[in-house]
Amino acid sequence: MIEFKNVSKVYPNGTYGLKDVNVRIDDGEFVFVLGASGAGKSTFLKLIMHEEKVTSGELVVNGFSLAGLKQREVPKLRRSMGIVFQDFRLIPSMNVYDNVAFALRVTDTPYREIRKRVPFVLDLVGLIHKAKNMPNELSGGEQQRVALARALVNKPALIIADEPTGNIDPEMSMEIVDMLDSINKVGTTILMVTHEHELIRRYDHRVITIEGGSILSDRPDWRDAR
């Protein structure tokens, strides 16, 4: 569960990233966060990931109260979420298998568990046959699927997808969102940031629109957000 209660974020130069935001996202929801560049979407995500700190108000994510979160608790918070970025962020010197396994190795997951979970998630995203390939041998869509596998491998309660379709073609964009939709159907909360109105027309999911650091609208699905 994610809950913003009167949350504002003010940067050192006085610019507001968010202004008095109140939003609740329940476990198991699929939510699109829509907005133009500079609307406040990135700030919204950075606060959830605890990359930025709340200036005022209260923010709770997966049972953690972030306003007073101690530094030693930050790794626990981040293990409860998987993150998919627009620019993939794969390690170029590692093959597909090791890029996914890396997310488990940094949390000291036993070798036997890594050997079981990595092939499982690679098969889930349709890339088991590419396990030994290097990132530069993959298409953009395949690289994004590796990034999705890496986000999934820790069995997170929440997946944050930050413009995951921004660097891939429209057909692959639909495939990525279809995968996220399937993952959501088994109980994982999905929070996907996008500016692509056409993309979300296909899906009957909640749409939160941010403009000027404020919540412009919060609708059950795209048909009500137009």
Automatic annotation (TrEMBL):
Source organism, top-level taxon: Bacteria
One cellular component term from this protein's GO annotations in UniProt: plasma membrane
Primary localization: membrane
One matching Pfam family: ABC_tran
Record key words, sorted: ATP-binding, Cell cycle, Cell division, Cell membrane, Membrane, Nucleotide-binding
Location(s), subcellular: Cell membrane
GO terms of molecular function: ATP binding; ATP hydrolysis activity; transmembrane transporter activity
Bilayer topology term: Peripheral membrane protein
Location of the ABC transporter domain: 2-225
Job of this protein: Part of the ABC transporter FtsEX involved in cellular division.
Family per record: Belongs to the ABC transporter superfamily.
Oligomeric and partner information: Homodimer. Forms a membrane-associated complex with FtsX.
Name of this chain's protein: Cell division ATP-binding protein FtsE
Organism listed in the record: Bittarella massiliensis (ex Durand et al. 2017)
Gene: ftsE
